[in-house]
Specification:
By secondary structure, the protein is of the alpha+beta class. 47% of the residues lie in helices and 14% in strands.
Length: 234
Amino acid sequence: MVFSPGIQWNLYWKKKISGKLINHCIDIPALNLTPLKLKQFDYWDPREVFEEKWDEYDKIIEKTDEYYKAIIEAGKRPCYEMEQIVPGDTDLDADGPILDAIYYKDIGEVGTGQDILMDEIIMDLRCLDAHAHLGNFVFDSWPEKALLHYNVGMKIGELSLPEDFNEVLLWAHIDNRPFFRCLHGYGLCLWKLGCFKEAEKIFERMLWLNPPDNQGARFNIYMVKDKKPWREDY
């Protein structure tokens, strides 16, 4: 953030300052966060998906869109699960702070839910699910603000991936889901705001990381490629 200070004064015991915000950006690496750990699992192999028809490989490729062609031709890739941080989740018999926040949002006490999520972030900025749900809470009413929440969570997750990470993060590995919620929300916000090309890249990334595509990224890709305006019923 670049801030040009102006007048400074004291109000009671507090110091005040006025000025002009010249520029701002989200610079996650500057925070020197400890990257989330990655746990390696077995390989994801497209042969297992098409095991009964693998002898008909050429026909499979012919009937597959360009995105899955690349995924299939890349062959098997190692799977990883990203560490999930939920600082206040210490009672295994409780629902946990994230579910508590969702509960308050669902009964109309959005502010209470947001406070719970912000407390999680204050305790550990790497709580990706808190960023994702803060975005979810304002997605309908304020997509520009939701975009920022998703973006921060997404960039913290990316900080934890090696440069040029080209492997698999399956949705089936539960701790990967907060990162995918941030990616998905970020892509939807870009789409909703008319940033079709940028949204396409996010959905392509999601499909590559999680070929089973539990969030339907492959359907969104073609919507944004055709520049169809976002609609809630998609």
